[in-house]
Write a structure and sequence with these properties.
This protein is α/β, with parallel strands linked by helices and about 350 residues long. About 45% of the residues lie in helices and about 20% in strands. It is built from 14 helices and 11 strands. It has a 6-stranded mixed sheet, with helices on both faces. A 5-stranded mixed sheet has the order 7-6-8-5-9, with helices on both faces. Helix 8 (about 200-205) packs across helix 12. The longest helix is centred in the first third of the chain and has 27 residues, at about 1-30. It starts with a helix and ends in a 13-residue tail after the last helix.
């Protein structure tokens, strides 16, 4: 009996060993997608998708998602260059800079994510009532060369102003968003061109007034704020996974637009988890009024933004060729399968 028991125990141990090895092999056989987003409301699909495991469910049990949280576009692009990131939600200017820096090799934009959500807020006592009143004023932007900084400088140029460092009269001051609010309250800046939720915070907490909702300067009020960028290597190696991601992204975008209150709750809970602090409800409500959640990349706005960046000296001495920065093949394939209108690549408005 003892001999038989030993055989049974040995067999059981070997069985458990092989079971454990099988599970380990199964884990190793999973494809890992390193995915990124920023913890803010213009990256809504990424934030909600991480919170409710929307993408994990869509991609299936043979795929693992390793989420990475970024606070600035340059760090996300650096991670992509280093082979540590496969797909990410990101703003237009970091994508443009990454594309140019890699000579068009490192990345492709495969879908839109959000439009709007930026604007120019001025102090009520700044004396700014019309465009001509910006003469001699101090206007903040979030970061030198970032999407809103480029928009501010481009808008000023298009309205006949030159910034102070180039001999003009309008001083553009790159400041982190929290510092903008502080100096706004101290009356040390006259206004700020920024992105949500900071537009709303300057209005609600800073007592400012919205001089310009950026949607006013774009055709049909649409301009890209966030889109999806994929590593070119990952896109080439795993087009099937990219298609599953984009399919899930389109479906999540539709769900968010049809279930705004539920989506808002999940969004704010995840922002709190990622940053340690939820947005005040009035700020969240006000912010989302100016943001459209979409899969349309609104390509024409990116090319205009690139023109502004080039004119301000952010893209080198030669105007870059961005004609291959987009690969919308999979997005349009998904849209056709769903009976939706394919998106257009408009390069001509550069």
């Amino acid at each position: 009996m003892k001999y038989t028991a030993r055989i049974l125990l040995t067999g059981l141990a070997i069985g458990l060993l092989f079971l454990g090895l099988g599970e380990a092999i199964a884990q190793d056989s999973k494809t890992t997608i390193r995915a990124g987003h920023f913890p803010n409301i213009t990256h809504t699909q990424g934030v909600i998708g991480q919170a409710n495991k929307w993408f994990e469910k869509a991609l299936g049990e043979n795929t693992k998602i390793d989420w990475k949280i970024f606070n600035a576009g340059p760090s996300a692009i650096e991670a992509l260059f280093a082979g540590e990131l496969d797909i990410t939600y990101i703003g237009p200017n970091p994508a443009i800079n990454g594309y140019i820096k890699s000579k068009g090799e490192a990345l492709r934009i495969v879908s839109g994510a959000s439009s709007g959500g930026a604007g120019l807020v001025v102090r009520k006592d700044s004396g700014i009532e019309t465009i001509k009143d910006f003469d001699g004023k101090k206007i903040a932007s979030p970061q030198l060369g970032n999407t809103q900084d480029v928009a501010l400088r481009g808008w000023l140029k298009d309205n006949g102003f030159t910034v102070k460092e180039k001999g003009g009269t309008v001083k553009v001051i790159p400041l982190a968003n929290p510092d903008q609010l502080t100096l706004f309250l101290k009356k040390e800046i006259d206004g700020a061109w920024t992105v949500e939720p900071w537009v709303s915070r300057l209005l609600l907490e800073g007592g400012g007034k919205l001089f310009l909702d950026e949607r006013e300067i774009w055709p049909d009020g649409k301009f890209v704020t966030t889109h999806i960028v994929v590593s070119s290597k990952f896109l080439k190696k795993h087009p099937d996974l990219v298609k599953k991601w984009i399919t899930a992204h389109v479906e999540l975008t539709d769900w968010i637009n049809k279930s705004p209150e539920e989506a808002k709750k999940i969004l704010n809970e995840e922002i709190k988890r990622e940053t340690g602090k939820a947005l005040p409800q009035n700020v969240l409500d006000e912010s989302l009024k100016r943001i459209d959640i979409t899969y349309d990349p609104i390509t024409s706005s990116l090319f205009k933004s690139a023109r502004w960046a080039f004119e301000q000296g952010f893209l080198g001495s030669k105007q870059p060729d961005l004609s291959n920065i987009y690969d919308l093949t999979i997005l349009n394939e998904v849209l056709r399968e769903k009976g939706l209108q394919p998106v257009k690549l408009e390069v001509s408005k550069q």
